[in-house]
Task: structure prediction
Amino acid sequence: MTESGPKIVTASFADRDHRAEIVERLYDVAVDPIRLEELLEVWEGSVARLRDSAIALEDPEIEAHLARASVFLDRYEAAAREAGPRSVLEEIPRSAAFLADGGAQVAGCNRAAVAAFGVAEGGPFAALPFDAEDRELLQGVIRKVAARRAEKVVTLRIRSTVTGSPVILRVSPVEGGGARPLALVVSTELVWPEGFADTVQEAFGLTAAEVEIVRGVTLGLPLRDIAEARGRSLETVRTQVRSVLAKTETHSQSELVRVVLGLMDVALLPLGGQAGPVPRGALEARPVQEMRGPDGRRLTWIGFGDPAGRPVLYMHLDYGLIRWPAAAERAAAARGLRVIVPVRAGYGRTDPLPRGADHLEGVTQDYAAVLDHLGLKGAVALPLGADLRFAMQLANLRPDLVRGIVGAACQLPVRTPAQYERMDKWQRFILANARHAPRVLPFLVQAGFSLARRLGKEAFFRQVNGGSPADMATFAQPEVKAAVLEGSEVCLATRWSAHAAFSAECIGSERDWSAVVHAVRVPVRLLQGDQDPQSPVQTIRELAADYPHLEVEFLAGTGQLLFFAAWPQVLEAVERMQAQAAVAYP
Result:
C-alpha cells in the first residue's frame, strides 16, 4: 500500500493585497521567528476556505518569496548568539554578511560578502553597492540596533547598484562585540560556495552545463542574463532548465532554489552533534546502536528493558520522543518487556530516505530491517500519533514481525474541514498546510524549529501545547519533562534540526491512508486522550465509526502526551495484547 489521495485541484491567492501581506509576514518570520504566530493568523484567514480535500494551495509568487525568505532561517542562530562576532560570521557561509557599528568602516565580513559586495574587513562602508541615500539609512539603523535603541531585529529593503535587484538586509545586535557595540547585517545575496558544483552534479546527475544553469537560477539571475553569460540562446537555456527540473524532480524554478539551498545546508553545515548534554534527571544513558539497511543507509536505534523479554516496537512520534520517563523504562524491565526504539529516517544519525522515495514504504522497510537485524518477531507495536500508519503498514506487510498494536493518542486519517477546525491552532496550522500547501510547509516547519531554538524547547512546548491542560500538567512532571527534552534531541538539538524529516512526516500523515487502516488484520487497541489538541474526542469517534475492527478507549485527563501521563495503563494494555497474540500464535 502507498500513501495516495484524490486528484488535486490547485488554488492561489487572487487578492494581491492579501498576497502582499503574507509576503511581508514571511519575511518578518524569517528574520524573527518569534513572529510566527502573526503569520499563523494571517495565513489562517487565507487558506481556511481551501480546507476541502480536493483543493491545494499553489502560488508561484508566494513560493518564490519563500525561497528567498528561507535564507534567513539559519540553523545556527542560537549558537551564534552566544559566540563572538567572528564566530557569528563563520556560521553564515552562504549569505553575504558583515559587521558594522554605523561608522565609516566595515568591522568584519564573511567570504560571501567579499564576493557579493566587494567589501573587506576594515574597508570603507561607502564601498557597499548601494546608493548613498540607502547607505546613510543603513548606517543609521546599524547605529541604533547596535546601541540597543531600536527593535532587536530590523529589516530593510534596498536596491543593489550592481544587479539592480532589491536586496533584503537583516540588522541585529551582536553579543560580546567588545569595546564598541556592533550589529550583524545579513543579506539575501547568495554566493555559490567553492566546490559546491561537484556536490550538485553528483546529487542530481547533472551535466556541467546544467550545473551552471542551477548556479545562475539559485543566485537569482534572469534566464536572459544566464544565456548571455554562457553565450547561448534564451531558448537553449530554457530547454536546459526543463532538463534540470526533471532531473531534480522539482516543478518550478522557485522549488529548485529551495532544494538547492537545502542541499547547500547539508554540504556546508555539520548534521550531527550538540553543544552540550541535556540534563536527564534519573534517566539512564542509552547507547545508540547502528547498522546498514538493505539499501546501504545508516539506521539507528536504542533499546531498554529486559534484553530477553517480549519485544515491544515503540514509535517515537514526529517530535522524536525516543525516551520514556525513568520509572517507565525501569518498569519495562520489571515487566519482562524488551523495548526497541528505531530512530526514523532523517532524525538523529539515521540517514534520510532517498529523494523521491515513498515515505510510508521507506519508513516501514526501515522498521522491518531493524527487527530482522535483531532477530525479533511477534512484537507488539506501540505507536504515538500518526505513527499508527507505520505500525499498521508493517503489520500488513510483515505479520510475522507485528502481532498486535496498542496506540497512545493516535491520529486516524482526517477527512473533513470540520475535523481540522477542531484542532488547536498550532496543530491545525501545521497539518492543514501539510495537506493543502505541502510546498509551503517546509518553510513553516523550519520557522517553527527556529522559534523552538529561540524560545528553548521547554518554552516552545508550552506555547504549542498550551491548549491542552492535561498535556501541560503532564509535561510539568520532572520525569516526563526530562524524557521529552532528552528524547527529542534526535529531532532538535542546538546544532541539529530534523525539520525536513518532520515536514515529510506531516505531509505523509495528511495523505489518505485509510486503505492501510482497513487492511490491518492484527488486533488494534487505541487509548485516546479526552484533551488531545490534535485528535479531539469527537473527531476520533467520527473516524473510528469507519473502522469497526479497531478498539478505542478514552482516558480521562490525558492529551497528546497520553503515554507519558498514563504509561502504567499503556503497558498493561501491551501485556494483554502480548497474551492475546500468544494464544492466537502459539
About this structure: Confidence is low (pLDDT under 50) at residues 1-14, 74-83, 269-278. The CA atoms of residues 105 and 124 lie 5 Å apart. The radius of gyration is 25 Å. The first strand starts at residue 9 and ends at 11.
